[in-house]
Sequence to fold (90 residues):
Amino acid sequence: MNKTQLIQKIAENGNMTKKDAEAALKAVIDSISDAVASGEKVQISGFGNFDVKTREARMGRNPKTGESVEIAASKRIVFSAAQALKDKIN
Fold:
């Protein structure tokens, strides 16, 4: 499902126009993005959690030359599904 199809589904299920559904989806995505970017954990009951994990700096290897390269520390976004969502899938 892509964004356009998701907007269509929201509009159908929420009895609203596509324009309103698109605005609602944008608001949700922006809110989650802003919260996660500021380091907050976002918990949506029955769906899952969005969290930021820090990856420590480490040594890697350039596959082309074989020389060691330092890989800088970075942050990554992690999603973990709620048990209700896992149960629905299985």
